[in-house]
Specification:
By secondary structure, the chain is mostly helical. The protein is built from seven helices and two strands, in the order E-E-H-H-H-H-H-H-H. A two-stranded antiparallel ribbon has the order 1-2.
């Protein structure tokens, strides 16, 4: 009598972007992906936090007693203003709202892996658009503050360096978007490989340490780097 063989279930590593809903628009087949769903969830969470913060601030204005939630928000806002002040100087107030917005969005995207979502910033489509926003703001400030000098500066210190200077201008938004994307994607791949290939007994406890590094530590660092470089590029075009 032969021994019965128990089939062994093998889980494939999963770190790809998956389609959730397919639809057609203008004759094209389009998909709502898990990146889209994750970005919607994060946007809804940020709007909810903003709504609660507004209610708390109004309540504190009435009774004159700020709560712990408001104190935490004020500490975060003060830290953000100090960071912008250190790079942009007197121009910080012009850009602190934009920097604060992308800081919160990128941070929550990076940390979403802790809650089972696939980080939207691990999709180059998201980080590329963030980089393009930086590119447009930087060049708008260059035109606003320097006029024609924004273009003639590409020929300095000697005209032969124009191609190199032009490539440098174009490479800035691409480099910061690729940096953010690659760091977040590497964390998604590491966690996908661990959960998909390791036996069940090493999926308990050990992944928590990996999440701390790949999502929490790396996510916070990359958020700071993206916002800091954005401010550096903007400051370079200011008077």
């Amino acid at each position: 009598m032969g021994m019965m063989k128990i089939p062994m279930v093998v889980h494939e590593p999963d770190f790809m972007i998956h389609g959730v809903l397919k639809y057609e628009a203008f004759g094209q087949e389009l998909w709502i992906t898990d990146t889209t769903v994750g970005a919607w969830i994060i946007t809804a969470v940020l709007l909810l936090i903003g709504f609660i913060a507004n209610r708390k601030i109004k309540a504190a204005a009435d009774n004159g007693i700020p709560g712990a939630f408001q104190n935490a928000l004020e500490m975060g806002m003060e830290a953000l203003e100090n960071m912008a002040q250190g790079i942009l100087g007197g121009n910080a107030r012009k850009f602190v709202n934009y920097i604060g917005t992308i800081f919160l969005f990128i941070l929550f995207c990076n940390l979403s892996g802790l809650f089972g979502l696939r980080a939207p910033t691990a999709d180059f489509g998201v980080t590329f658009l963030l980089g393009m926003f930086t590119f447009f703001i930087v060049n708008y400030q260059g035109l606003k503050n320097r006029g024609v000098g924004h273009f003639t500066s590409l020929f300095q210190p000697i005209p032969i360096l124009f191609p190199i200077n032009l490539i440098g201008e174009v490479a800035n938004p691409i480099s910061i978007s690729l940096r953010l994307f690659a760091n977040l994607l590497s964390g998604v791949i590491i966690m996908g490989l661990w959960y998909g290939m390791m036996p069940w007994f090493v999926k308990i406890g050990i992944p928590a340490a990996l999440h701390v590094y790949c999502d929490l530590f790396s996510g916070c660092i990359q958020t700071y780097v993206f916002c800091m470089l954005t401010m550096v590029y903007i400051n370079d075009k200011m008077e």
